[in-house]
Every structure is written in C-alpha cells, then in structure tokens.
C-alpha cells in the first residue's frame, strides 16, 4: 500500500503503523494528521475512497465524521455563552419555550452538553423520513419526557444531541445550525469541515463500509444485545428511532442535511486543526476552555451501558479503561465518532490528533486503530 503525504522523521514509527493498518486489518481508506505545538508533524493518507476500490484516497477526501461533530457544536454553543446569548445554567426553555414541558422546565444547557438531561431517545415511533425533518424532530424532543430526573445520572445522546443543541444555537445565533457552527468553528481556522454538505462536494466523500466478522469488545456487544433483545429500551431507541439512523450515512439526503451530532464531513486535517485551534485559544478563551474540559459526568452510561466520562460536548480520558482512553495523556479531551474516526487534544504535550477512516469498526468507545497511532505519537513526542 502506497502511503501519501508528509511526516517528520521523528514520527517514522507512526507512519509505519499507519501503513501496517492496511496489511493487518480490513482497512480500505484512511488518513491521520498530528500537530505538535501548532506545527504539522504527520499528514498521511492512503487506500481507496469508493466502494468499487477504483478511486484513490486523495489529500482532500472527506469522511462522515459522525459524533466527532459534537465538539464543534459544543464550541459554537459556548461561544454564544461568551456573547451572553446563551447561559450554561439557565433553563433551556427561556430560549426555547416549547421545550419547557413534561419535566423539562429546569433542564439547562450544561445538562444537555454533558448528557445529563435525560433525552437520549424519543419514545414516540417516528417514520424514517423524520430523520431529515428538523421541525418534526425538534417538536418530538420538545414534547418528550426525560428518561430519568435531569442531573441525576447520564446517558449518551447519540443523535438527539444534534437537534437539542442545534435548535438552541439556531434560536440564539439566528442562522441555521449547520451554517452557524461552521462559521464559528471551521471558517476562522480555515478548516475543510462541513455540516450540511453541498452537492458539489459529493465527489470528494468516501464511501462507508463496515468491517466484516468483527464483533468488537464487550461494550459493543452489550449495545448490540440491547438493540436485538429489547427494541423499546432507551439504548435501542437512541439508535433506531427514527429507524433510518443506522443505515443512511452513504445517502445524498444524509450528506445534505445539517445534523450537528452526527453528520459533519471533514478529514484528519480538519480534526487536528480544530483541536489545535482550541489549544491556541483560537475558538474559546482559556476560562471557557477550562469549563468545557472539566469533568461533568462519570460512571455507568444509561445509553451505552458502559463507563463514560464527559465534559461539555467532549469525552475525557479514562487512562485505566482500555477501550476508553485516547492513548496519550490523562488530560486528553476530544470525541470519537461511530466506526473509528476521532479527534482530540492532549494539552500536556501540546498535541492535536485526527484520524479518519471509511472502514467502520464496531467499537462503542475508542477504536484500537486510532489508539495504536496515538500511543506511538506519545512515544515519539517523549
């Protein structure tokens, strides 16, 4: 496999491990980008981008980043906090009056950002097309009753996060959520990142496939068991209501819509550039960044059925949990996306890291491919 791009010779071990992915795994296409102290030290890509295996992965190939999108959304919301247009600890219903019913009157932006609001799923059965109907989804969430008392426990809002935060951003910013988030996060840093992709960019998007005969770790198997055995459970509904959530990511309508929890499109460069921008106060001041990266939720996750640790719109490292560590420093913060994409920062080493793939692994938390590369970055930085 021919590896394209650039690497600083100090990071040759990272380049070798990236190349090895295409030998040892079912890897079809991928890219990795690492910045240290604001300087790019690794920017590599390889493999194929299309389903037929005929189109080579390019330097500007885009990937559906899934939940890596959530931190971009959180940063946009926190910028609105800095501007006084949103408040972390005031009821969401002050900005979104229809939301303040059925036990949600006191839910705050802080609770939404840290997955404590009790709204990871909608109970009312929704048709597949509701996925693409912003008004239908925000109305369903405004009418929903929390699955637990808000603030008493946490459960990952895999996709509802996008409508909940997006609607608040829409009301406070005045622009549509995808446009507002991109304008606030990607544009100032010159990042190739999109929420609501233009048709003219479709030919740059890699086609997603799943690894075969890989059933993941115990955490992944618990979620799969819940999906199969109890379709009305919180966990199942979080991923299957609307029923189109799990099988739409290659469709044109998925790419076009703005779903700020799950369908940002970008590449390894845009992820590393975003986290480098955070480390350099390019998007938030230090005080707000400290608040964003402070632990808010830890323990058994009611959606993912495993131990998670959240700050505001990002995951925090769990160094002692094999499938929940970024593999670098204990202060690392960032966000994985379904299937293996990940972006994060390690402030201790001044490292920003991005990895993207079109070959989706089955892991619920961190993907071992990215963890391997991150551990080698750590060793090379020293």
From TrEMBL:
The keyword Hydrolase applies. It is an enzyme of class 3 (hydrolase). GO terms for molecular function: hydrolase activity. The keyword Hydrolase applies. Keywords: Hydrolase. Gene3D superfamilies: DD-peptidase/beta-lactamase superfamily (3.40.710.10). Residues 18-371 form the Beta-lactamase-related domain. Its EC number is 3.1.1.103. Pfam families: Beta-lactamase. Transmembrane segments: none annotated. InterPro entries: Beta-lactam-related, Beta-lactam/transpept-like, Beta-lactamase/esterase. PANTHER family: BETA-LACTAMASE-RELATED (PTHR43319), BETA-LACTAMASE-RELATED DOMAIN-CONTAINING PROTEIN (PTHR43319:SF3). This is Serine hydrolase domain-containing protein.
């Amino acid at each position: 496999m021919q590896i394209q791009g650039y690497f600083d010779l100090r990071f040759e071990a990272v380049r070798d491990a990236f190349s090895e992915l295409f030998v040892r795994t079912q890897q079809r296409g991928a890219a990795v980008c690492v910045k240290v102290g604001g300087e790019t030290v690794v920017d590599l890509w390889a493999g194929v981008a299309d389903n037929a295996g005929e189109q080579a992965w390019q330097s500007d190939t885009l990937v559906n980043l899934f939940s890596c999108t959530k931190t971009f959304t959180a940063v946009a919301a926190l910028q609105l906090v800095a501007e006084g247009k949103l408040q972390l600890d005031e009821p969401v219903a002050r900005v979104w009056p229809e939301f303040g019913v059925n036990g949600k009157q006191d839910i705050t932006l802080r609770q939404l950002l840290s997955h404590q609001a009790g709204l990871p799923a909608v109970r009312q059965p929704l048709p597949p097309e509701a996925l693409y109907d912003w008004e239908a989804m925000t109305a369903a969430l405004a009418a929903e009753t929390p699955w637990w008392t808000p603030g008493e426990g946490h459960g990952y809002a895999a996709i509802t996060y996008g409508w909940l935060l997006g609607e608040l951003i829409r009301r406070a910013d005045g622009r549509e959520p995808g446009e507002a988030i991109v304008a606030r996060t990607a544009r100032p840093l010159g990042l190739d990142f999109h929420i609501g992709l233009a048709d003219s960019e479709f030919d740059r998007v890699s086609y997603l496939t799943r690894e075969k005969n890989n059933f993941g770790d115990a955490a992944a198997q618990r979620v799969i068991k819940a999906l199969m055995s109890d379709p009305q459970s919180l966990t199942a509904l979080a991923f299957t209501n609307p029923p189109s959530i799990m099988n739409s990511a290659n469709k044109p309508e998925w790419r076009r819509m703005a779903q700020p929890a799950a369908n940002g499109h970008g590449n390894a460069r845009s992820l590393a550039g975003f986290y480098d921008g955070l480390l350099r106060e390019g998007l938030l001041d230090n005080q707000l960044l400290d608040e964003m990266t402070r632990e808010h939720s830890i323990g058994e996750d009611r959606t993912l059925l495993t131990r998670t640790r959240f700050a505001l719109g990002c995951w925090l490292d769990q160094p002692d949990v094999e499938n929940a560590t970024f593999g670098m420093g204990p202060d690392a913060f960032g966000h994985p996306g379904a299937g293996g994409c990940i972006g994060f920062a390690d402030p201790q080493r001044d490292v920003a890291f991005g990895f993207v793939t079109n070959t989706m692994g089955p892991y619920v938390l961190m993907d071992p491919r990215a963890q391997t590369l991150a551990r080698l970055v750590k060793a090379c930085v020293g």
